[in-house]
Design brief:
With about 90 residues, the protein is mostly helical.
């Protein structure tokens, strides 16, 4: 289905999501395919996550990637980060 992401990208994205969930009192650890809105993130949380991702990876997410599909799951976020960082063709 999806290619494997570099562990550092996947782990860093997961950490950012868990941090936002923890601040909301949610101790859930979503897996890569869990819908983040179903896990408890609101649209405002997703905006905060976008800003945190830009800071964490020192990137600017282009408008073309600012869509609900890019922030649906940990996997889609990781894929988007890898694409923006220039690593769209990752080894499985």
């Amino acid at each position: 289905m999806t290619e494997s992401l570099p562990l550092d990208v996947a782990a860093r994205v997961a950490h950012l999501v868990r941090d936002i969930l923890a601040r909301k009192g949610i101790e859930r650890r979503p897996d890569p395919e869990t819908s983040l809105t179903e896990a408890g993130l609101t649209s405002l949380d997703l905006v905060n996550l976008m800003l945190a991702i830009e800071a964490e990876f020192d990137i600017t997410i282009p408008t073309s990637h600012l869509s609900p599909q890019s922030f649906r799951t940990l996997a889609t976020i990781g894929e988007m980060v890898s694409t923006v960082r220039g690593g769209a063709t990752l080894a499985a």
